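Researcher: Let's try something more involved. This one mixes different molecule types, so please make sure each is placed in the same coordinate frame as the others.
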Amino acid sequence: MQVGRTGLPSVAMDDDTGAGHVLSDFLLQLENYNPSIPDSVVAHYLNMSGFESQDPRLIRLIALASQKFLSDIANDALQHCKMRTSSQINQAKNQKGPKEKKYVMTMEDLAPALQEYGITARKPHYFV
Amino acid sequence: MTENVEKLESGSDARRRILNIAVSTVLLETGFESADKISLETLTEMLQCFFTEIGNSAKGYCELSGRVEPVLGDVVMAMINMGISIQGLEQYAARPNRHVIQPPQQAPAPRTPSMLSAGSKAKHASHIPFYLPSLPDPHAYIRTPTHKQPVTEYEAIREKAATQKRDIERALTKFLAKTSETHNLFNTEDNQVFPLIACKPTFPAYLPCLLPTDQVFDFDELEYHFQVANRTEDVPAEKKDQSDNEGDNGGDNDNANSSQAESQDLPVNSSPDRNKSGG
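Model: All components are placed in one shared frame. Result:
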């Protein structure tokens, strides 16, 4: 199985119970759980590609997985951002105490984060 | 988080904006304060592609095993195929700071103003699926007779005819009593109690009986014919005069006193002619 991320082992081969069993327990917990993305929106996009499910837990599982996917990318971008700002602060030799840092997500941080996932994001040369 | 407001509003745009909000929520939770528009759009696009891909893959796995409805295993296989890790899902679900987005409210579908509609449309029969459009106005396909079957019994028709005749006569006499000259039944000044239609005797009284006449439809036309018939400057047609006069004699008894005068005049003129021709 092709793995996009570098350095992580492939999934579910070392589990003794198997991935399906793990998640079947989790599925029961999902009944009362509401992910950030509303069910109807996720269901709509899944329906667009042919996936129709009457079980809302499955929808929520997919929504949760997508959220986690995004948050992983965002975390990586945050690491990039922190590295950049910390290096800038060291260069500027700021003597003030640790002020509250406000992080702005830009393409400069996002592009290398996505690169690790194998997604190449390039800015278009002109507006299309 | 920074977001620009889109100008167009449509179904797909609304859902896209929800995805935007979701991405922004995730970024907030991660610790970012704001984000570029372009990076936000990139992440939203990625999210949408994620859903599409998972849906496609899971559907494929499901159909591969001969099923129609996807199951948890299909979704797991799809996620593994994409390289998404399943291990951390439970922990991620249990994270403390979670925002939940309100599900989008259903906008009321704009009702097309029903123009030129008469009556209420009938509901679908049980065999018609609900998603088909509604039936048209009932007058378009239902024929209802405008009147009941008329009564054909001889008795009823006779009675109806008699009633109608009586009503007509009563109405007509009342009308004449109100509009034309009346006599009083009682010798009082009060006119309204029992008015009688005045009888206008003609002089001589036996004349209309002796001279049968055609029915007069138009007294003006009669007068015209009388004038035409009595022209003397024209061709000397005594016979023509006679035939015209005989045909044109009017004899209606009721209101028009002028016609009475004419009919008195005409016979006076024509009788000597007739006597001449006869003689």
